[in-house]
Amino acid sequence: MGHSEAVKVLLLRGADRDADRQDGSTALFKAAFKGHNHVIEELLKFSPTLGLLKNGSTVLHAAVIGGNLKTVRLLLEANADPTLPNKKAIDLATKASQEDKAKNYKEAIQLYENSIEHFLHVIKYDKLGDKGKQSIRSKCEEYLERAEQLKEYLKKEVEAPRAKPGKESQSDDKGNESDGGEGDQEKKKFQNQLSGAIVMEKPNVKWSDVAGLEGAKEALKEAVILPIKFPHLFTGKRTPWRGILLFGPPGTGKSYLAKAVATEANNSTFFSVSSSDLVSKWLGESEKLVKSLFTMAREHKPSIIFIDEIDSLCGSRSENESEAARRIKTEFLVQMQGVGTNNDGVLVLGATNIPWTLDSAIRRRFEKRIYIPLPEEHARTFMFKLHLGSTPTSLTEADFVTLGSKTAGYSGADVSIVVRDALMQPVRKVQMSTHFKKVRGSSWNKPDTVVEDLLTPCSPGDPNAMEMTWMDVPGEKLLEPVVCMADMLRSLSSTKPTVNEQDLDKLRKFTEDFGQEG
């Protein structure tokens, strides 16, 4: 048998990988070691790349340690080092992607297939971990899928020359036509991602629950409630507002107003959107999500798109910002008020604490810019009553007025925190008390039943005082003290306002330049 036949038999039997000798050497290894170039040449005709041997050595390594310079040169010229197929595969995949972008689809298909072959060779022969192999396999699947898409496109090119291949298929601006099934699938995927932004359960916040802010409430009623209830009022040149920006210090009720809108606008679809709903790590997907959001809003009109902290998405454009952020802003501008977009029945409601950072073009698209200021004294008085609700209390009307006057500079959220802390004061009294006394009152689990043996904290000097701690009181027998004015004042002294004067000055300046009072 000649050299050629012997080499082929060895290869077909896997002699280069499955040798029985303990050191892992093979006939192929020996040929490289001894410099039998005619054997190597025959091998290269049969297989353009050589794999690893059983002990981790390479055929190239054998030629090097054997000192056979001609064999080394022969192997290198043939790219027979198993570390090279990985680089070769990457180069081929890069070229395939370039040809794909250049729309040279036939060349791209061939390059994709060649790169897959080289990657599979790397998986088979290289010493890779499971994660490395899995990563390469997933890439191979992507390239294979893209090659199949291109083949399908080339096949249909004669029948439909205007069609675009797989990934480039997009729905049109109106969202009701698409170039093949791929565009429909992409549209459906984005709409599924955004479906979580639709508020299905109403927050149950009425206009009456919002203290003050009459100007803001009237503007929202004009934009949302009136066009639905009296559509004949808004015909011809009289059109409802399409964009309303609520701005003001933190905790003044901007998001709370949006909840009231979601509750009161019974027939409208309410989209509550944050930056996490619209920002994607994949290039180009963020602006498609913005487009899909507005497409869904038009399909489900009348609808309201509420974007809280809109400054995170639509800040001023600058040279230092990323391309992705710029593209999101551009898509917002186009969708809110661009050529070919019809936003009848769609209201965009934005909220921000720092309106001066908004891009000027975005600011213009919000036709009404309403300042939500810190609550006035009468509003704060109402808030104390609102937050206490039905909790037992000994506060009088005069006490509520006093609390309203003592909380100048406090936001609605600050007042809420004061009340919550005051509601905890009776609980703290129970924890700290060393004496309890029996009183008459309603059982907490049976409000209609009056019992005589409830226990409540008292001072050690009380005639009926019994020395005991809260740990000794049975759970159903405890009657907590009512909230009193002293509790409110104690909580007020420990809770400071969260808004500083510098921020208020900036907001007042912005209101003078661009906004209106709410």
UniProtKB/TrEMBL annotation:
Chain ranges of the AAA+ ATPase domain: 240-376
UniProt feature, compositional bias: Basic and acidic residues: 156-177
Compartment list: Late endosome membrane
GO molecular function: ATP binding; ATP hydrolysis activity
Claim: NAD is one of the keywords in the record: no
Domain MIT: residue ranges: 82-160
Assigned EC number: 3.6.4.6
Top EC category: hydrolase
Keywords, comma-separated and alphabetical: ANK repeat, ATP-binding, Cell cycle, Cell division, Endosome, Hydrolase, Membrane, Nucleotide-binding, Protein transport, Transport
Residue stretches of each ANK repeat: 55-87
Membrane topology: Peripheral membrane protein
InterPro entries: AAA+_ATPase, AAA_lid_3, Ankyrin_rpt, Ankyrin_rpt-contain_sf, ATPase_AAA_core, ATPase_AAA_CS, MIT_dom, MIT_dom_sf
Stretches the record annotates as Disordered: 156-189
GO BP annotation list: cell division; endosomal transport; protein transport; vacuole organization
Keyword Transcription in record: no
CDD domains: RecA-like_VPS4 (cd19521)
Record family assignment: Belongs to the AAA ATPase family.
Name of protein: vesicle-fusing ATPase
